[in-house]
Sequence to fold (800 residues):
Amino acid sequence: MSKNVTNFFLAAIALLGCTAAYAAGGAVADEFKWMTFAVFGVIIAITMAITFWAARSTHTTSEFYAAGRSVSGIQNGWAIAGDYLSAASFLGIAGLISLYGYDGFMYSVGWLVAYITVLLVIAEPCRNIGKYTMGDILAFRNDPKKTKTVAALSTITVSTFYLTAQMVGGGVLIKTLIGIDYEISVIGVGILMLAYVVFGGMKATTWVQITKAVLLVTASIILVIMVWAPYGFSLPSYLQAVVGDSDVQKQVAKLLGDKAATMTPEELGQRFLEPGLFLKNPIDQISLGLALVLGTAGMPHILMRFFTVPTAQAARVSVIWAMGIIGGFYVLTLFLGTGAAMLVGPDKIASIDAGGNMAGPLLAQFLGGGENSMMGNFMLAFVAAVAFATIVAVVAGLVLAAASAMAHDIYVGVIRGDHATPKEQVVAARVASVIVGMIAITVGIMAKGQNVAHLVALAFAVAASSNLPAVFLTLYWKKCNTTGILLGMIVGTVTAIGLVMISPNMTYPKAVLASANKVLNGEPAVPAKEAQPAVERSSFMCELFAMEGCVLAKPAQAASAEKPAKPGAAEKLAKLGEKVVTLEASLPTIADVAAKTAVEADLAKAKKDIAATEKAKAKAEGDLKKFEGQTTSIMGLEKPFFLLKNPGLISIPLGFLLVIFGSLFTRDKRAEEMWDELYVRQNTGINAEAASAH
Amino acid sequence: MSNPNVNWAAIDANPKFQALHRKKTFFLWGLMVFSVIYYFLLPIGAAYYQELFKTKVWGVINVGILFALSEFVVAWTIAYVYSKKANAEFDAMAQGIINDVNSGRI
Fold:
């Protein structure tokens, strides 16, 4: 085994060497790229050393899936944080705050509150009842083969959605930061992650997650100290500076559009700290909130972490630590996001990545001394490497969860009827890991350029609509049985996925074509409008579905002046080109230094506008080509039928209801007989799986 | 999976276990319901009570920011309260039941 690990280590170094050759472009300047690779190399070497060490004590099934149940509560708390703080939350939330202020911060709250559900109702009972997977918990009192099959399918579905989002996000991130090709990044992430999982199992995965969480928290604390220290660590004076910053005020003015015309700069800045710049639909937010609060507790890779600790008490300690680390981290992102908005500027952040994902890395570069400084690029490299470690650690946890469902639930539980030798089980686990890893790499490469942001929300929605009702009712409701579990899980999953397929998350060619045509051909003038009174919606269902005869609520609108026609891209480019020619011609004739600087600034701005317009034009032309002749989404819809981005509001109650109905209308002798044992065991820990002796 | 030596129904019916069950159910549901309500007050307030959320209370800091920060404090407090209660009471009660089972009293 250790020889194989050494080979992998060498392969990883070779991979690193060849990626360097492909790297061109990205946020790091070419002359400093060596530094980035050095930092990446150090972090990969550390994780490989961990894998090497962990592989020596990973022989049995319990060691492979659950690290021999020898992880301490505090260690598991850090590992949960490492498993949970994906690139989406680490880079995404800081980015949202940097672009939209308050709403970004508000968005982060649900991700922490979710752990209250985990702490109060899931962690300890699962530790006392479960063995390696969610399927084990459901199979305790329900029909083992049926529930294990459904639990495994659901686990694999949730993990695949989440994995795809991570792989695509990771590939794009690495490309943006250091310019390594997308495909190579995806393969690199995949191979590294497979090395941890296949050789080191849960022990290596746990320690890679702990390492990553420590690095992430350290990096964030250093950045926040640098951002906050100039204000004497006073919250009001720091936020005063954010509000007074001209970049922030400009961003708010851009977001508000016409409404900003009557506002003073102070009002614009203050608006950054008020709700409503990003999250506009409160019902959608409540739907997402439900999915987060109930979905986290149904995430297979989070559930699995509770099988790694020796006792229910240790499971409790681990959630408390995880809540401290995760919550503390989100409070830090408030400073990272607002700091990036103030120091780097929302304009620059959005120009590198429209979603704001580069806010944190760019802030690090700025604080180190800027684009051309050694220290600035070192800090950027460090943050980039942490982001890379983040993706690898999260993906490793997900692959392990999916592989355990495949090997332990389906192969050992269903196909072999729980009669596999210990050796066969470990082999099955490793083979399943390789299969899932290969799927992750393939899907990651196939999904290049696709819009995958909704997949994270979808993963949580499926977990909340299918896994959580099943686990929760099995643990706490005496009448719950096999039929209810099967019905609830299948309908919950199908509803969540189905609603997303007809939601605004999908691409609707008609809308894409219309906006592309606007860019290319310009827009006609809009005549002046009289003031409009507020419109009330016709019914609550109309907020959820685009049904016939629905009237959507609209706030009252003030009278607006006539808007002139907007020129198309070609016309705009011609005008800007003329302007550049005139300005350039006039430059040598100007003697006054001040006037000359002003003209030079104009010239630079015109050139920047040309570049931006050309980029928009190219994108619009690409869209026209891509969607030529199409009028409907892949579901055959011209526009969304379900109006929320998150299906939780409907699919979660439905999942619960169907488990309840299915259980009430059928009888299952085993489920009833096993209730006493299940309930006593989950509360006392009698006969719980013990830690393996070392 | 089941241990033939343990009479689960007897433990379940034992007054000590019933007391643990009642205490835990009441306490956990109370905390859970409170935390869910408190969490959803945030999006509801941000959407429907914007004037309140925009009210400045400490320099530029408004009610909305303080409320969002309070969500973190409340979540941590719930975690602290639960772990205190579980460490001090639930664990001891469970241990009492386990001791009774091991010594053959149940």
